[in-house]
Amino acid sequence: MLKKRKSLWWLTGPVLLYLVALPLYNRVDPVVLGLPFFMFWMLVATLLTPACIWLAARKDPLWRADRDRDRGDSE
Hints:
Elements: H1 12-20, H2 22-25, E1 31-32, E2 35-36, H3 37-59, H4 61-74
Antiparallel strand pairs: 1-2
Helix pairs in contact: 1-3
């Protein structure tokens, strides 16, 4: 079942952005766009999280089948 749902690996993106990379960006310098690097990284991670979730849902065959079934019922 999970072999057909490889797109769910996109859901590890936010986890990696927030948790695994924490030691890499836990500093104030450099300043990016007027923000300390930590705040800039959190902003980027927050903006990329919906994209990762959208990609996981868009490519998931079960989600697509459920969406097509719902669309067929409403028409």
